[in-house]
Amino acid sequence: MSDLTTTTTAGAASGPAAGGAATAAPGAGSADGAGIDARLEGHRTELTGYCYRMLGSAFEAEDAVQDTLVRAWRNIDKFEGRSSLRSWLYRIATNVCLDMLNAGNKRARPVDLTGPTPLAQAALSPRPENVWLEPMPDGRVLPSVQDPAEAAVARESVRLAFVAALQHLPPKQRAVLILREVLAWKAAEVAELLETSVASVNSALQRARATLTETEGRAGDVADPLDEEQQKLLERYVKAFEGYDMAALTALLHEDAVMTMPPFDLWLRGTGDITGFMTTMGAACAGSRLVPVAANGSPAFAHYKPAEDGSGFVPWAVQVIDVRDGAITGMHCFLDVPRWFPLFGLPDRLPADA
Predict the structure, then answer these.
(1) Architecture of the 18-101 domain
(2) Where in the chain is the domain with CATH 3.10.450.50?
(3) What φ, ψ does residue 258 adopt, rounded to 5°?
(4) Which residues make beta-bridge pairs with 260?
(5) 34-60: pLDDT as tens digits
């Protein structure tokens, strides 16, 4: 995504126009214009988090936010100040997301679409990229906050399990639940944003809560920062994975742990099938390297596997790890490499001595 403020030549207007095109607005190219840029840009991270929860896609969320900021820039002269700038931006972002969701696409995880596949029947069948819930770097969706409780809610609300559960809600219920439960808006504020009644908002929230109770799986119990026990567990995981030590890996996995591999709809449950897959169909990952990253409020790693020519390590997957009760319960491996590594700001190769 391009920055909100585009670089312009002398006398040209600046603003968040898509593709770097100039868009005139009151004060554009002046100190006032720069102030507008800064005020809008200051909301980018929280708006990206909101749109990601709504859409389940990292790239669609960033597109939605860019569209939101462009619309705000173009219409800043119409902003009458009856609400805060933040509320106005959320109104625009909500409308952008609802328009995008009108196509009916609903993001999912492999575990939402099929049952687990026994190793003996494992086959790698890809589905289109718009089927899948996508990972998201924490830094793009989690604003810095001082309140530990608020930070914990924000992390929980971008966990894969929670975002996947949100996809089961109709779009407006999804918006109501996020605004009320995650962002702590008042019912009257949400009603004004959606141009509906408080009673309608409360009813939608009640229905959304009921649906989430039925669909949301346990995301995990990871502390922030990681406590000493969790840190040691992840260090042992890295050592076992890089050493391709299946006995050591088995000791770290919950007996009902799952491994998913979008864009393939195959997913595996249980230590035997997971390690069996890794030593057969996944054997090319032996000798890999894992680089810590932060994704979806969870521990995560960039997975580089050995290059075929022996010259180093090449991107392969972003792994998002679920941890619960002192064990690893989920290994979610997003294999669509050309998309994820640039999103996370990761290098396109590691040297042979990494």
Answers:
(1) Orthogonal Bundle (1.10)
(2) 228-351
(3) -120, 150
(4) 267, 332
(5) 688 888 999 999 999 999 999 999 999
Burial class (CB in 10 A: 0-12, 13-18, 19+), 311: exposed
Among the residue ranges 13-17, 125-129, 213-217, 328-332, the one predicted with the least confidence is: 13-17
pLDDT in tens, 136-151: 999 999 988 878 888 8
pTM of the full structure: 0.89
The position carrying tokens 């399990």 is: 161
Q: Under CATH, which number does the domain 228-351 receive?
A: 3.10.450.50
Strand pairing report for 350-351 and 327-334: unpaired
| Residue 267 bridge partners (DSSP) | 260
3-state secondary structure 192-213: HHHCCCHHHHHHHHHHHHHHHH
What is the DSSP secondary-structure string of 297-321?
TEEEEEEEEE-TTSSEEEEEEEEEE
Which token pair is 313? 């390590």
Residue 28 confidence (pLDDT) above 90: no
What are 304's strand-pairing partners? 289, 315
Scanning the chain, the segments in alpha helix (DSSP H) are: 31-41, 44-55, 58-74, 85-101, 110-113, 138-141, 148-156, 160-166, 171-177, 187-194, 198-215, 228-242, 246-252, 271-278, 337-343
CB 264 within 8 A of CB 334: no
Please choose, from the candidates 54, 45, 110, the residue with its C-alpha nearest in 3D space to the C-alpha of residue 334.
Answer: 110
